Amino acid sequence: MILSMDEIVNAICLHQAERKGVKPTDVTVELSWDEDTGYTAEVWVHGRSQYLIEANLTEAILRYLYTEYNIRAYREQIRLELEDEIVAIVQQ
């Protein structure tokens, strides 16, 4: 299974909204990849910025897989890759 960049952004929005007690529409996400830091995301909630590292992204994706697709996955089954855009590959 492959999650698109939009689905990864949705996963992060839903996860951060739940953690911060806000609506998912109040969360803005910008994904990026850098040679030094790897996969990261900058998240804005009500004007406040926070950086997430790959482990945080994986946590959000795991929760999204369970809530949206009823798939229980483990961290080892998720691999982020940069193709034309950032995608998450889930091995089952």
From TrEMBL:
This is DUF2653 family protein. It holds the Pfam family DUF2653.
